[in-house]
Specification:
Layout lengths: L5 E9 L3 H11 L3 E2 L7 H4 L3 E2 L6 H16 L18 H44 L6 H4 L6 E9 L3 H7 L5 E9 L2 E9 L3 H10 L3 E2 L7 H35 L1 H21 L3 E2 L3 E9 L3 H11 L4 E7 L24 H10 L10 H15 L3 H17 L3 H21 L15 H6 L11 H29 L3 H6 L4 H19 L8 H25 L6 H27 L2 H23 L9 H34 L21
Antiparallel strand pairs: 1-9, 1-10, 2-9, 3-8, 4-6, 4-7, 5-6, 8-9
């Protein structure tokens, strides 16, 4: 429920040991480095930054070039545990860049050839589309119109010039089709792109092309034309694949060397990132940061070993101020939830990071979120479909946490579906707990004690009261841990606010239990609601005088106005927060009603013998798909909204910083 205990390290080492210290910090990977810019001014003015021999930016740019090459062959490199961590000089990075340049040039040459082949493919596709555009007939007049991109010509050349003609036309996307022979001549149909016509005319002149009259119909040649184009396209696509394989092989050939370079550059980047937090004097280097208390002994031992005990280390608990800084920063938060709860931790961190030392609500969100979703989407069959979608999503999608959340929600819907007796919108089996379908349709017996809509609303209101009460309890724990006694006693989220909320619940329950005809006795109301209302009036005056401010007459008016506004916010806020949980019942009823509507339509489409027709089955399937998509999304959003705005707002302060140590596994 709480983040891991943190401790602050302030250290000083001799400058010659700065690199050894950096290697230790990277290998241990447990120190959340802190900027030293907020050190006491009298100290900071005598310190300087630690500058690496080579620009970290240059190393990063070179490493990203390697990233691009390796990603093109599906390789994602990682730093091994036994890697050697060392600084780099300019010549090493320049050598890496020269090596990368050579590979890049080779790959770019292949890509240029690919582009040329691709352009040829596009040209042949232009011809193919133009031929197909005019249906089964190739109308010469249409092809010669300004809307066509191809030229269609019929002519003859001598048989001796035909090989030369075909060879020269290989440079152009053109189709040559033999349509007849006469003596030493062969008659040809030539289809080419208009933009190449000037160059093709020169070739026609060279081979002695003689134009003849274009026949009115060329239908019987259309199949040959299309086949020839498809053959050329198949050949060109094959060339593209060969070139892609050639580019892939070119990078694979130097994959090992590129990976070694990447590891060397990445470790140097991290090396520089750690030292960017250092400050140095003439002979010493200073650093500071946070780490989990449980890691203190191991890190301390490694630092002493790396510096031969020539260092000074001071450990400060999170509760103790650091005298060397002007404004002490708070400790970062390291959440410690099981891996199974990762989807719900994602929901929490999307709202904010818990302040260090306050409650992490993730384990509770597992229960509240799934309970809300299950109550709103209670269907065993549809729940299993959602769970199956989550399992498939984990296999094929990059959003693993979201897919896992779907699995959780699917099983929650399945459990509540069994409790409510709902299976793909049908009451096929007897409910274990509550006959939701019977209540909505009005066909439920009174034996179970729950036989109306108001009983469902009552369940959700009680659930809402429990969630809000838990939120108040969490807030009291946080205030006690932070020693905020004033807020604990007199704040709307403190004991006084809890008193008002409990009194309001009792009053409302008394009113409902007496058929809305009477309130609790006057004496009880004065004690339950009147007394805390008067105590709220003391909040602002006490806060005002505790700060030593001077009182003036008009300030009394301010106190009264602030008191009235406070009371309105407390009473209306808690009432609206509680009633907001009725939407859980509303969506649950809407879910059942929508499935009943599709079931009714399916029965109307059934055959006269009462059996399901094809149309009835299709309506039933479509209805379930629609409800899973729309109602599932709506239930998920509403469950999240109720957690965020009715639960988190009672205790959660999302102003913390996530624990982010620099290690060899640190991502960009």
């Amino acid at each position: 429920m709480f983040s891991r205990a943190m401790i602050r390290l302030f250290g000083i080492v001799i400058e010659r040991d700065a690199d050894a210290l950096t290697r230790v910090l990277l290998r241990q990977g447990v120190l959340h480095m802190v900027e030293m810019a907020n050190l006491n001014e009298s100290l900071i003015e005598h310190l300087m930054d630690v500058q690496p021999q080579v620009s970290r930016t240059k190393a990063t740019e070179t490493r990203k070039r390697i990233d691009h090459l390796l990603a093109s062959i599906g390789i994602t490199p990682a730093i091994p545990e036994n890697v050697k961590i060392q600084a780099l000089d300019e010549s090493v990075i320049d050598g890496h860049n020269a090596f990368i340049d050579k590979i890049t040039r080779d790959v770019e040459n292949i890509r240029t050839r690919q582009q040329m082949v691709h352009r040829e493919i596009l040209k042949f596709k232009d011809i193919q589309n133009q031929v197909q555009l005019y249906g089964l007939q190739i109308n010469p007049q249409a092809l010669k119109s300004r809307h066509s991109f191809i030229n269609l010509n019929v002519g003859r050349v001598t048989k001796s010039h035909l090989p030369e003609f075909e060879n020269k036309l290989k440079e152009f996307p053109a189709v040559i089709l033999t349509i007849g022979e006469e003596d030493e001549y062969v008659f040809l149909l030539l289809i080419s792109i208009k933009r190449d016509w000037e160059l093709i005319q020169n070739i026609l002149t060279q081979v002695g092309w003689q134009s003849v009259e274009l026949p009115d119909q060329l239908d019987h040649h259309r199949g040959d034309i299309i086949g020839d184009i498809e053959e050329k396209l198949a050949y060109l696509n094959g060339e593209l694949e060969k070139l892609e394989e050639e580019a892939h092989s070119r990078i694979v050939r130097d994959e090992k060397q590129l990976t070694e370079f990447w590891i060397r550059l990445r470790t140097f980047e991290l090396f520089c990132r750690v030292q960017a937090y250092f400050k140095k004097s003439k002979r010493t280097v200073l650093f500071t940061g946070w780490l989990p208390l449980a890691k203190k002994d191991v890190l301390e031992e490694e630092i002493y070993k790396a510096t031969n005990n020539n260092c000074y280390l001071e450990w400060l608990p999170a509760s103790k101020p650091f005298v060397l800084v002007q404004d002490n920063d708070t400790a970062p938060t390291q959440l410690s939830n099981p891996k199974l709860f990762e989807p719900f931790q994602m929901l929490v961190t999307n709202y904010g990071i818990p302040q260090y030392g306050t409650i992490d609500p993730t384990p509770v969100v597992v229960l509240t979120y799934l309970s809300m979703f299950g109550l709103m989407f209670a269907d065993a069959g549809q729940g299993l479909v959602i769970a199956l979608a989550g399992f498939l999503g984990r296999k094929i999608s990059k959003f693993k946490k979201l897919a896992t959340l779907l699995i959780w929600c699917g099983f929650s819907a399945t459990v509540f579906g069994i409790l409510f007796g709902s299976y793909f919108g049908m009451p096929w089996f007897r409910p274990v707990w509550l006959d939701f379908h019977g209540i909505v349709t009005g066909h439920v017996s009174a034996e179970g004690g729950m036989n109306g809509i108001f009983d469902i609303l009552k369940i959700t209101v009680i659930f809402g009261i429990s969630v809000i009460g838990l939120g108040l309890a969490f807030n009291w724990i946080n205030l006690i841990r932070r020693r905020k006694w004033f807020e604990l006693l007199l704040d709307r989220g403190g004991f006084l606010g809890g008193w008002v909320y409990a009194a309001g619940i009792y009053t409302a329950w008394y009113l409902v239990d007496h058929d809305y005809r009477s309130l609790p006795p006057t004496f009880s109301l004065v004690g339950l609601l009147g007394l805390p209302a008067l105590l709220f009036f003391l909040k602002e005056p006490l806060h005002f005088f505790s700060r030593g401010k001077k009182f003036y007459a008009m300030k009394l008016v301010d106190f009264i106005m602030e008191w009235i506004v406070e009371l309105l916010e407390v009473f209306s806020g808690y009432l609206s927060n509680t009633l907001s949980f009725m939407r859980v019942a509303g969506l649950g009823i809407a879910h059942v009603s929508l499935m009943m509507a599709f079931s009714t339509i399916a029965r109307m489409l059934s055959g006269p013998d009462g059996g399901f027709s094809v149309w009835a089955i299709l309506v039933f399937i479509f209805g379930n798909i629609l409800v899973i998509l729309l109602e599932g999304l709506s239930a998920g959003i509403q469950a999240l909204r109720l957690n965020y705005y009715e639960f988190f707002t009672k205790f959660f302060h999302g102003t913390g910083r996530l624990f982010s140590p620099i290690s060899l596994k640190t991502k960009d």
